[in-house]
Design a protein that fits this description.
Layout: E1 12-17, E2 21-27, E3 34-39, E4 42-47, E5 50-55, E6 61-65, E7 68-74
Antiparallel strand pairs: 1-2, 2-7, 3-4, 4-5, 6-7
């Protein structure tokens, strides 16, 4: 998911592959006010005054906890 690179150089990005899913993570840090929502095949991430829209496979899940965005995609 190269679209995560849109989030900027200050965000730690990672990809973890498991038998049944792939998890993409972006670490904004706990000091940033961030939220996420999934609408069909789009993840909408709002960090402060910035908004990012990332296209994903339908059925993926996304959530933020302690400033870390996780997007889980089934294989």
């Amino acid at each position: 998911m190269t679209a995560l690179k849109e989030l900027g150089d200050d965000v730690g990005l990672s990809r973890h592959e498991y038998d049944d899913e792939v998890v993409f993570a972006a670490d904004f840090g706990p000091e940033h006010d961030a939220s996420v929502d999934v609408l069909d095949d789009t993840v909408i991430v709002v960090v402060g005054d910035e908004q990012y829209e990332l296209e994903i496979e339908e059925g993926a899940r996304a959530f933020i906890k302690n400033g870390v965005l996780s997007i889980e995609v089934d294989r």
